[in-house]
Structures are given as structure tokens and as C-alpha cells.
């Protein structure tokens, strides 16, 4: 079974700082990768996803993530964070095939952006 | 239209009582999922419904947990004889179909269950 590790439990940044949140997964086969975000008081929503093709994917609000197959990683980045990016970020992996609907989530990283 | 709706948003119960959590998926979504998020843990898959097919119950942690989906729409997650370790946020999600690669899961706001 696959698993997902998010290295940072809580990240605190000042506005305009650059962001990189780590995500590593354990699964040897083809994977689909996701980052979800939950803003305070809101539903969990999809930030970006990778299925195939260009390993650098761009999502909403200036976020991007890079799939590095050799490192089993899918790190989330943003060049300059804003106070409104304060949220919890969850990385998830799906292994196509049997149980193709199942998402396995990491424990999440809480991002606090200080104005 | 409306998103995934869950009720109640918060539920406080006494140990040993039964609770029912409700999920109303997005209209037209055939796939429905229940997850649980315990303190300090990631989202844990519980159960999955797809149309009229038999549900995948492989994630249910014990036989005190059960779920049903009536008429292919609303789902109810039931926890019998609740225990303190059942305290968590229970999230429901729905998608147009089961293939995650093509059908994004949309989440509800969750039900925060506290067992005293």
C-alpha cells in the first residue's frame, strides 16, 4: 500500500517569502499526485494535480508543484506567499488500477503567513 | 449547484451512544467517499460507494462503523457504541465517477465528532 510523508507539520513565513512544502510518497508504480488546500473555515479543495506529461504542474493562486519520479517527490512551491495563503496543505497520491478511486493523504502542513 | 453538504457540522456525544452522520453529495455524482481525520493524522479512507455496486468497506476501522447510501444519493455513516478514539472530523467527498485521474473528488465541510 502506498503512503505519503509531508516533512513539515507547521511552517511560518513572512509575506513575500518563498514557499516549498515537501511531499514524498512510497509506491513503485505509476501514480497520480494531488495537492489539496483547506483555508480557515472552508472546504478542502483541489490546488493542483499531476497525472502525466510535464512534471511541472501549475495550479491556482500561483502555486506549482514538480513531480520528480526518481525522488518519489511532489513538492509544492510558490515564489511569493501572501497572508491569504494561510491554510492547511495536504498532499495525496492515487495508484491507478485496482482501487483506482482511493486517495492516500499525508498528515498535512499548516502554513501561517505573517503580514 | 450546491457542493457536498454534511450534517451536523458538530456533534458531541457520550461514550457508548450511537451517532449518525449525513452526507448529501453533489447532484449527479455517482461516487461517494467517507474519510476520517483524527488529531495529528492524515485523512483516512473509510468507505466508498459507486452507483449501485457493492461498497468498498475496506477502510472501516471496526464493525461498529457502517454506512449506507440510499437511492444512490444521500449517505449515512453510523457509529455504534462510540468510543473516545472515534473523536475526529469525518469528511465526505463525491465525484462524477470513480476514476480519480479524470474525476476530481469534491469535499464537504465535515462533521466534527467529539466523544466524551
Give the SSE layout.
The complex is a heterodimer of chains A (115) and B (116).
Chain A: E1 3-5, E2 10-14, E3 19-21, E4 24-26, E5 32-38, E6 44-50, E7 56-58, E8 64-68, E9 73-78, E10 87-94, E11 104-105, E12 109-114
Parallel strand pairs in A: 2-12
Antiparallel strand pairs in A: 1-4, 3-9, 5-6, 5-10, 7-8, 8-9, 10-11, 10-12
Chain B: E1 5-7, E2 10-13, E3 19-24, E4 31-37, E5 43-50, E6 65-69, E7 75-79, E8 88-95, E9 106-107, E10 111-115
Parallel strand pairs in B: 2-10
Antiparallel strand pairs in B: 1-3, 3-7, 4-5, 4-8, 6-7, 8-9, 8-10
Helix content estimate of chain A: under 10%
Could you name the CATH homologous superfamily of chain B?
A: Immunoglobulins
CATH fold-level topology of chain B: Immunoglobulin-like
Order of helices and strands of chain B: EEEEEEEEEE
Helix content of chain B: under 10%
CATH class of chain A: Mainly Beta
Number of strands of chain A: 12
Number of domains of chain A: 1
Number of domains of chain B: 1
User: What's the CATH C level of chain B?
Assistant: Mainly Beta
Number of strands of chain B: 10
CATH architecture of chain A: Sandwich
Give an overview of the whole structure.
The complex is a heterodimer of chains A (115) and B (116). Chain A has one domain (3-114): Immunoglobulin-like (Sandwich), CATH 2.60.40. Chain A has 115 residues and is mainly β. In chain A, strands 2, 5, 6, 10, 11 and 12 form a 6-stranded mixed β-sheet that branches. Chain A has a 4-stranded antiparallel β-sheet with strand order 3-9-8-7, with no helix packed on it. In chain A, strands 1-4 form a two-stranded antiparallel sheet. Chain A has strands spanning 3-5, 10-14, 19-21, 24-26, 32-38, 44-50, 56-58, 64-68, 73-78, 87-94, 104-105, 109-114. Chain A is built from no helices and 12 strands. The mean pLDDT of chain A is 92. Helices cover 0% and strands 50% of the residues of chain A. Chain B is mainly beta. Chain B has one domain: Immunoglobulins (Immunoglobulin-like). In chain B, 0% of the residues lie in helices and 46% in strands. Chain B has no helices and 10 strands. Chain B has strands at 5-7, 10-13, 19-24, 31-37, 43-50, 65-69, 75-79, 88-95, 106-107, 111-115. The relative contact order of chain B is 0.32. The mean pLDDT of chain B is 91. Chains A and B meet through strand 6, strand 10 and strand 11 of A and strand 4, strand 5 and strand 9 of B.
